[in-house]
Amino acid sequence: MIKGSCLCGKVxxxxxxxxxEIAQCHCSQCRKAQGGAFATNSPVxxxxxxxxxxxxxxxxxxxxxxxxxxxxxxxxPLYSARSDLxxxxxxxxxxxxxxxxxxxxxxxxxxxxxxxxxxxxxYPKFKEGN
Length: 130
Ligand SMILES: [Zn+2]
Ligand SMILES: [Zn+2]
Known about the structure:
CATH architecture of the domain at 2-21 and 42-106: Beta Complex
Number of strands: 10
Radius of gyration: 14 Å
Strand order of the largest sheet: 6-7-8-9-4-3-10
CATH class of the domain at 2-21 and 42-106: Mainly Beta
Structural class: mainly beta
CATH topology of the domain at 2-21 and 42-106: Metal Binding Protein, Guanine Nucleotide Exchange Factor, Chain A
Largest sheet: 7 strands, mixed
Bound molecules: zinc ion
Shape: globular
């Protein structure tokens, strides 16, 4: 069981599953959406993820089939989801409060990474998605 919430606490969630992969996405959209060098996302099973405070969740349509959701009160990024992949929600891992470990990490869209950021770990790197 994984629990998480946004910065202000108005939105919280429970994931009745385990985190099995961690993607560090360096694409330009994720960098802008997170305000950082990369976004740390985990694809989880939509059906096992439940939110409370849903009235505070705003979904920004970043392209015709993809939304990026955030808390409308504090701005915390929460997840992204694609209409053509309804079973998968990509959770923004910085909002997770439960402690766990997962060594299945990888970098995606490294061709789009910020010029000032260096990737200095041994995890797999993909020029685009994987
Ligand atoms: Zn919030
Ligand atoms: Zn991305």
